[in-house]
Design brief:
The protein is of the alpha/beta class and 613 residues long. It is 29% helix and 19% strand.
């Protein structure tokens, strides 16, 4: 033995010994680090893990790492990624599936709605009569201590769902208060009802030029009901409260928490303005958005200088909590507000004084709108009070559609185009060949609502690669009224014809259009699958689709609409861990019970953004 053999120990090792030991230690540490870096943060198992890759495709376990899905598959394979710090979650038979993707709503308006008097009709709200509306408003003034001269805002009334079957008039609302301006937003989001104080402050009289439709009585006086762009007459008149950014941000944050409580991990602001874009971008920059928000500025919001358009162009291809996804065109209004533009008259006409001369909203000279094939270039004029030919009206001319769609195409931008009535869809269909010599399927142009889209129109839409985003909650909530009041049996049974789009191999999505009828996603699936009205009538059962097909429309196909199918919409390795846990598997439960499935937990990139209590 060498005398100084002990020197080969740790204390007196040679330089060579130290180097060797250092290399061994470094190699071991690197190996441990690499092994640790490949270990999952969380592993889920013990439930129905629905991937949405194909109908019925499930896996036994799923691992998450750094906000992304690390691996899915057999329990043994996934648990091979378990480390000492891995959290293991037993689903206990519950369902884990991709987070829901909202393909069209208005997150800012929905968030602001929570700060107004709730006038939603029964069964989704408390208002069944005109007296209910008045009582709710009086109680709101008292509860909130609203001072004289300050605005009273109510949201969600529906003239077709209350006993009186009419809009609140200025006389009705004057009974609530003559010292407060009162503004009520219709459930369709396309009409407001105001009192005399508001009309006075907005300087709206019988002689006011009409940018949309000012409903008037037999003497030509405004009734207090303002449709479509006529709503803008009350803007900028110091009537509505001017909220600061600091006031708006907490409202939006709370609103998005409600979205998350419904399993939504990506939401839309579908009629953005410069102000809402500024608020959402500031919130994203400060980490205040719990889920992703994609905004589409309304074409009317683009400023002459082009700065908002430049922002949309700059955001093309951007990923993150917030981005501008493209532009939004609104060709007509809503069926339940009698402002959707139909090729044939409404089944049951509005009451006296509710129908004004058809004109193009937003056109200063009252330019006549283009009609469907049968009525091309035919000018339709309605004197106030006549109801025999009301078909609604358009908010844009074909020329305007061509102009804005061309602008979007030049920059390769995604366009959302709102058409509820088939005559409005005709305007879009006629505009396409003027803008595109060949179909531009790469742009994924989306028809928002497409409620009365005809079979011949679907043929053209399929050829051009358009994506219909349907609004199936109408089947449940307004279905009986569509049959009896708005459309009649024949047209009502085809409303939101998802099966027709499916038969053509079209990608389509489903949306709730909040704040119109809540933010629930599973009620949409139920409506598309069952097509049963709130009155229990099976409305167009031949247009039903399967639960898997409906779920695709709020997961992978909705991700496709947003050009994000590479990172969202299915549970696959490498995609974001945007997920939801449900108390039941919607693919195996009785289809009639899908709408009652509860969201238990929502994850955005692996982090919990909602947990049921």
């Amino acid at each position: 033995m060498r005398p100084n053999a002990f020197r080969s120990g740790f204390l007196f090792e040679t330089r060579a010994d130290r180097l060797k030991r250092s290399l061994v230690y470094s190699t071991k540490h690197l190996k441990e680090t690499l092994m640790s870096s490949n270990k999952a943060d969380v592993i889920y198992h013990g439930g129905s893990i629905v991937t949405m890759i194909s109908d019925g495709h499930r896996v036994e376990a799923l691992a998450v790492k750094d906000g992304k899905i690390l691996r899915t598959g057999l329990t043994a394979d996934v648990f091979a990624l378990a480390g000492p710090k891995t959290q293991v979650v037993d689903l206990q038979g519950k369902c884990l599936m991709p987070g829901f993707i909202d393909s069209h709503s208005h997150v800012v308006s929905q968030s602001l709605k929570y700060a107004t008097a709730n006038l939603d009709p029964v069964p989704i709200g408390p208002a069944a009569t005109m007296d209910d509306i008045k009582r709710i408003l009086r109680d709101w003034i008292t509860a909130k201590g609203i001072k004289e001269g300050e605005c009273v805002i109510g949201w969600g009334y529906d003239d077709t769902a209350i006993k009186e079957q009419r809009h609140p008039t200025k006389e009705d609302l004057d009974q609530v208060s003559k010292v407060h301006p009162i503004v009520l937003m219709h459930i369709s989001f396309h009409i407001v009802a105001v009192n005399s104080k508001t009309l006075e402050m907005a300087e709206i009289t019988k002689d006011t030029p009409d940018p949309g439709r000012i409903q008037k009585d037999k003497d030509g006086e405004p009734t207090g009901v303002l449709e479509e762009l006529a709503m803008t007459l009350i803007a900028g008149k110091r009537i509505l409260p001017a909220l600061t950014l600091d006031q708006v941000r907490p409202l939006i944050k709370d609103g998005l928490k409600v979205y998350a409580s419904e399993g939504i991990t990506t939401a839309q602001e579908g009629a953005a303005t410069s102000s809402s874009v500024g608020a959402l971008r500031a919130m994203a920059d400060s980490g205040e958005l719990p889920i992703d928000v994609i905004a589409y500025p309304l074409y009317k919001s683009f400023d002459p200088g082009g700065s908002l358009l430049e922002q949309v162009i700059a955001d093309k291809g951007r990923r993150g909590r917030f981005r501008l996804g493209g532009i939004k065109l609104t060709v007509d209004g809503s069926i339940q507000g009698y402002t959707a533009f139909l090729s044939k008259p409404y089944f049951s006409q509005p009451g006296p004084g509710e129908v004004a001369e058809d004109q193009c909203c937003g056109s200063n000279n009252g330019e006549r709108i283009f009609l469907s094939d049968v009525h091309t270039h035919q000018a339709v004029t309605h004197a106030a009070g006549t109801t025999d030919e009301n078909r609604g009206f358009a908010n844009m001319t074909r020329t305007e559609i061509v102009e804005w769609l061309s602008r979007a195409d030049r920059h390769g931008l995604h366009a959302l185009i709102h058409t509820n009535g088939d005559a409005a869809t005709d305007l879009l269909i006629k505009a396409l060949p003027e803008v595109r010599r060949e179909p531009r399927k790469d742009l994924r142009t989306t028809i928002i609502h497409a409620q009365t889209i005809r079979e011949d129109q679907l043929d053209v839409a399929a050829e051009h690669g358009l994506i219909p985003s349907f609004f199936p909650i109408h089947v449940y909530f307004w279905g009986d009224r569509h049959r009896e009041k708005f459309l009649g049996e024949e047209r009502a049974r085809r409303i939101c014809p998802t099966k027709s789009a499916l038969d053509r191999g079209m990608v389509f999505t489903l949306h709730h259009d909040a704040p119109v009828a809540g933010v629930g996603m599973l009620p949409l699936v139920s409506a598309a699958v069952n097509r049963q009205t709130s009155g229990g009538y099976n409305l167009g059962p031949e247009y039903r689709i399967t639960p898997y097909q409906a779920l695709r429309a709020i997961t992978i196909d909705a991700a496709f609409q947003y050009f994000e199918e590479d990172r969202k919409g299915t549970l696959q390795a490498g995609k974001l861990a945007d997920m939801v846990i449900l108390n039941a598997d919607p693919l195996v439960i009785d289809p009639m019970k899908i709408g009652a499935i509860r969201v238990l937990q929502t994850f955005k990139e692996g982090a919990t953004v909602y947990l049921a209590t």
